[in-house]
Amino acid sequence: MTITPRPTRRTVTGLGAAAALGLLAACGRPEENGDGSAPASAEPIAEGPATGSLTVWAMGAEGEKLPELLAGFQEQNPDVTVEVTPVPWDSAHDKFTSAIAAGTAPDVAQVGSTWMAEFVGLGALEPTPEEISVDDFFTGALDSVTVGDTVYGVPWYVETRVVFYRKDLAEQAGITEPPADWEGLLALARALQEKAGATWGISLQPGGTGSWQSVMPLIWSNGGDVVDDQGAEFTFDAPANEEALAYYQSYFSEGISNPTPADGTTEQDFVSGAVPMFISGPWMMSAVEALGGEGFAEKYGVFVMPQKESSASFLGGANLGVFQGTKNRDAAWKLVQHLSRPEVQVQWFGISTDLPALQQGWEDPAVASNEKFEVFRTQLDTAFAPPVVATWEQVAAAFDAQIEEVCKNGLAAADALAATQSEAQSIGTGA
What we know:
The chain is 40% helix and 14% strand. It is of the alpha/beta class. It folds into 2 domains: 50-160 and 315-384, D-Maltodextrin-Binding Protein, domain 2; 162-313 and 389-427, Periplasmic binding protein-like II (D-Maltodextrin-Binding Protein, domain 2), CATH 3.40.190. Helix 1 (60-76) packs across helix 12, helix 9 packs across helix 10 (283-292) and helix 15 (392-409) runs antiparallel to helix 16 (413-427). Belongs to the bacterial solute-binding protein 1 family. InterPro entries: SBP, TAT_signal. This is Sugar ABC transporter substrate-binding protein.
């Protein structure tokens, strides 16, 4: 598999400074911050095997499966003990902030990509030592651990979203190639309704928690963004953003997407053909194939997000961080270093199906042999991390609420973005 760098449209967003990946030094760090001050630095990692005890928090399925992956680390470091605590995603953020305030944070943890700037602002995370190279991580993944001009932690795994579609039903509707642009996606959705018997042409989230993740790829595709290059000012009300949100709204105003979908029916509706297209991540492959049964994998395909100025998608996943105040710092970073090896990330893919954050991991046949995964690999080159601002969780909630008004109640995109801009400015960036 050929690895090519992602063409970068915007710089790394952070708290008051920006650093393009090309400016990073030998192990991925700039020589100074944008304001002329030195970036945060970390002490070297002591040589020799890890010893002592470590506490690790990880969320959801990762927390349940991580002990299996850590068996290799403990074999290589027989004098270390690692205790993994699974944390439910829905309570994880509050659990972390409470632990940070109380001084009881774990040594190492899985950190959601939208939490990094907030936790750094709280003084909770250590900068990444020079011994851990960040050169090979996907650019968008590296963006998510870069606050100001300093790298904190490392990307652990990545995910991005592409379009799932029923190839067989598209062919029935007279379309034999996946669309490449916005107009083509809309035309395919209409054709699936009009010629292939679909109830709805495509499943899109009509507002509610996390709907910003569905809209942002269109904004990026249209050359827009919701923060400036310095991460200092919000830009929700930009014309490119209005055009993108109006396009998203058209699926609902034209009756192509369901404004009141039932929860948990995406896989069932996809397999039945009632809703033969949706946008999601790689975890949905096993879900639809298990429900569809033998031969269903041949009935559907995936394609990269359609382009306006470019094809763009949301880059999700999770990071690994070492918390300030750890009593076993060297062992904590040795664990992070172990989990950042390509072969270990490929092993983790085999256990969890989480996609490697290291580009080298995608050269392994276990990942590269599936043509559908190759589409995800292509999309990762043009996938963007969410804004790295400390207040993003609050701002995103305000944006979600306005997206719902657009999709369900017909609010004009310009008005929704003006309202979001006003609220975002009131919240601030946390800088």
